[in-house]
Write a structure and sequence with these properties.
Blueprint: H1 3-12, E1 17-25, E2 31-41, E3 47-48, H2 50-59, H3 63-82, E4 89-93, H4 96-101, H5 105-112, E5 121-126, H6 135-146, E6 150-156, H7 163-167, E7 171-176, H8 178-181, H9 188-203, E8 207-210, H10 216-224, E9 229-230, E10 239-240, H11 241-250
Parallel strand pairs: 2-4, 4-5, 5-6, 6-7, 7-8, 8-9
Antiparallel strand pairs: 1-2, 1-9, 1-10, 2-3
The chain binds guanosine-5'-monophosphate (2 copies), sodium ion and manganese (II) ion.
Organism: Ferrithrix thermotolerans DSM 19514
Domain EAL: 1-252
Protein name: EAL domain, c-di-GMP-specific phosphodiesterase class I (Or its enzymatically inactive variant)
Length: 252
């Protein structure tokens, strides 16, 4: 079977998993959210890179089907986590093409059957999305907002979104890209950029989230800068669904 055939077959037989990576509030180390990250083990040894799988599914027009399944799994995890942590949220990554279509939404809303089925869901969209140039996209963002979803601007600092554009969506957080966090020890310029991004988040009234935090020194710096949340291997790697409960019970 070709790679493409294996991806299609994995999707149709539900051989995909979500892993969950926590986001920690820096002030008190509480876990406030988990980001769902797709993993697709195509055979026992080698999971395919997620980025590649997304590309294949997009090119075949199957990304909506994946998003639907991911969202249903994410909602299950959200319900399980909220038993002990009622304020927790789940972040789901969403590709630009999926965001502008919303075909995937009706079946989901129907299946979940509540008035605001996306309460507690954060959609992570990357900054490369042309948020205000596409009418479809803007109305999709509003529609999702009406269903309770909020947005996270992922990989912030790598694209060209203007502050005006950011004001038009129901934004909950800005995620400072890990390429900046990686350099904060060695580079004054990176430290200044991180500080600036934290301040931009706060001026928009949203949380500043640092991704790719691997070292205690990075966390200390972020704390001094007033960054709100941290995510990265220092706190936890993405966890398999069945490990999340155990991880939470051992945390702190
Ligand atoms: O965790 P990892 O390095 O494999 O993630 C690779 C990329 O895939 C990241 O950019 C992430 O945003 C994206 N990604 C992970 N899960 C999903 C998903 O369910 N849907 C979409 N569209 N992208 C995802
Ligand atoms: O595009 P997006 O920002 O969603 O992708 C995040 C990617 O970064 C995921 O693939 C995730 O597995 C990875 N990741 C998460 N934490 C860390 C970290 O501390 N260091 C590195 N290098 N990668 C990380
Ligand atoms: Na993300
Ligand atoms: Mn990111």
């Amino acid at each position: 079977m070709s790679e493409v055939e294996r991806v299609v077959s994995a999707l149709s037989s539900n051989r995909f998993e979500l892993h969950f990576q926590p986001k920690m509030r820096i002030l008190d180390r509480a876990i406030t959210s988990f980001e769902a990250l797709l993993r697709m083990p195509l055979n026992s040894e080698s999971p395919a890179p997620t980025q590649r799988i997304i590309e294949i599914l997009e090119s075949l027009g199957l990304i909506d089907e994946l998003t639907r399944k991911v969202l249903i799994e994410a909602k299950k995890m959200l319900a399980a986590l909220r038993v002990d942590n009622p304020e927790v949220t789940i972040a789901v990554n969403i590709s630009p093409s999926t965001l502008s279509s919303t075909k995937w939404l009706d079946p989901v809303a129907h299946l979940l059957y509540t008035s605001r089925p996306l309460d507690g869901i954060i959609f992570e969209i990357t900054e490369s999305v042309e948020l205000t140039t596409s009418k479809n996209l803007l109305s999709a963002v509003r529609e999702l907002g009406d269903l309770g979803a909020v947005f996270s601007m992922d990989d912030f600092g790598t694209g060209f979104t203007s502050l005006m554009q950011l004001r038009t969506i129901s934004l909950a957080e800005l995620k400072i890209d890990k390429s900046f966090i990686e350099r904060v020890q060695g580079s004054k310029r990176s430290r200044v950029l991180v500080k600036t991004q934290v301040d931009i988040a706060h001026s928009l009234g949203v949380l500043a989230v640092a991704e790719g935090v691997e070292l205690p020194e990075q966390l200390n710096f972020l704390s001094e800068m007033g960054c709100d949340l941290a995510q990265g291997y220092l706190i936890a790697r993405p966890l398999a669904a069945q490990s999340v409960g155990t991880w939470c019970s051992k945390y702190l």
